[in-house]
Design goal:
Helix content: over 70%
Largest sheet: none
Shape: globular
Strand content: under 5%
Oligomer: single chain
Number of helices: 12
Order of helices and strands: HHHHHHHHHHHH
Distance between the termini: 21 Å
Structural class: mainly alpha
């Protein structure tokens, strides 16, 4: 990993942490699931324009349509959970729980992906990170109404949804498509799916202000389109194991952003949970030794 790659990954995970703060602030003006739907609609336009600019064809390749719809529906479930979680609980808690995704991915890969069995070191990392997530959910001390068990469970559901998207992209026919088309499928299906789901979550508008519209635009352009397309580019340029080794930064940055921007309380138990999850992710992504 060269300096450019390391700097890019640090910036990427920092953007993801900032995005959680933006989502929480945007939820004050727009109903969470409706906001997620608008974000996907905006991302459809941005990704389509990017594909046109790069000369990448919108390819509904035979045999990939059902897989594309499946990935899009899992993507929808992920963001229903994430946006609801950020509406009900703090960014700091969501960061610890949601960014435990590599833990669940490692566990699923052990059973479903050839050549990705859990080693002793990875199993230790899995146990540590699992303990950290369980600690964060079980310990309710010092919350003072800032968080809810439902919000924490929604964050866990979002982590499992993220794992589902990543897994489906590797085991279903959609893996034959270029990354841009995979991302296009996700936003294309999720936009209407989230809009329909939003009807069950109350009024679409809460207290809409210009800051909320700006936050929504940031999510659609900078995150749902730009950041993830950049992520796919990084995966093409660098080894997946090297890229994944930076994943522990996600919960760390998330907790720091929630504390710094929103003034959220960071208890000792939450820091303990964060340490366990971060160390677990490092061990899970640690490359195996070669002869």
């Amino acid at each position: 990993m060269d300096g450019f790659g390391a700097g890019s990954l640090i910036l990427f995970f920092l953007l993801l942490a900032v995005n959680q703060v933006v989502i929480k602030l945007t939820n004050d003006g727009i109903q969470p699931v409706f906001a997620a739907s608008l974000r996907s609609f905006g991302a459809i336009a941005v990704i389509w324009l990017w594909m046109r600019y790069r000369g990448v064809r919108v390819d509904f390749q035979k045999g990939t349509v059902s897989a594309g719809i499946l990935v899009g529906l899992i993507f929808s479930a992920e963001f229903v959970c994430l946006f609801v979680a950020l509406d009900l609980t703090t960014v700091t808690r969501v960061s610890v729980i949601f960014y435990s995704m590599p833990v669940w991915m490692a566990l699923a890969a052990h059973f479903l992906l050839p050549g990705e069995h859990l080693t002793r070191v990875k199993s230790l990392g899995l146990a540590l990170a699992f303990g950290g997530v369980a600690w964060a959910i079980i310990d309710r001390s010092g919350l003072g109404g800032e968080a809810s068990l439902i919000g924490d469970m929604a964050a866990l559901g979002a982590a499992l949804g993220w794992m589902g998207v990543s897994l489906a992209a590797r085991v279903t026919p959609i893996k034959r498509l270029v990354p841009e088309m995979q991302m296009f499928w996700q936003v294309l299906v999720s936009a209407p799916a989230l809009l329909i789901t939003a009807m069950f979550f109350g009024p679409f508008i809460r207290d809409l202000q210009p800051i909320h519209i700006a936050g929504l635009a940031f999510q659609a352009v900078a995150i749902a389109s730009g950041a993830f397309l950049f992520w796919f580019w990084l995966l093409k340029r660098y080894k997946a194991s090297s890229v994944a080794s930076f994943a522990f930064l996600s919960p760390v940055f998330g907790v720091v952003m929630g504390w710094m921007w929103l003034g959220e309380h960071v208890s000792r138990s939450l820091i303990g949970s964060l340490v366990l999850v971060a160390v677990g992710i490092i061990l899970i992504n640690r490359p195996a030794r070669t002869a």
